[in-house]
Amino acid sequence: MDRRTYLRGVGAGVAVLAGCASRESERTDAESTANRSTSAGTSGPATASGVHRDYETTTVRALTPDRESLGEVTAAIADTPELRYRGLSETETLPVDRGMLFVFDAVADRSFVMRRMDFGIDIVYADGEKTITAIRHAPVPAPEEDGSDQRYPGRGQYVLEVAYGWTTDRGVEAGDRLAFEL
């Protein structure tokens, strides 16, 4: 059984059990709502402890050339070979207010894959000045695919991965800029 099928089954079982369980208190219900991470393509905030809690994070804003804000995410920073290789592969969902920022030493041609991904993403390439050079929309791999053959090329020193459709929904395009501190 592949990972996605297993996770769907577990999720369905949890949903059934949650529907049968009684609420312990209003506080427990509120905490549950506050701590729930919403999946890519849905709205709602993630908590600091929810997604990528073992990573350092930074706020990444997408800006027009005139510095008008188009949107922002809290991004986990992948700045070592190990963190960059792992990427979002071990992530079950990606809330719309979260992302991952891949940091490299220099601008270069790069290619990202969808290895073991359970959700689609937008891949934003930016040069050394943080100007967006390319955006790739990478849908979730089909159930019989592991995503290794799905390649999304671009040129940049920084690569931001966000929820699928995030850039389209906010009008982010090549020539816009990313703003963040490391």
From TrEMBL:
PROSITE patterns with a match to the protein in the record: PROKAR_LIPOPROTEIN
Pfam family, one: DUF192
Span list, region Disordered: 21-56
Bias (Polar residues) ranges: 31-46
Descriptive protein name: Putative membrane protein
Organism encoding this protein: Halapricum desulfuricans
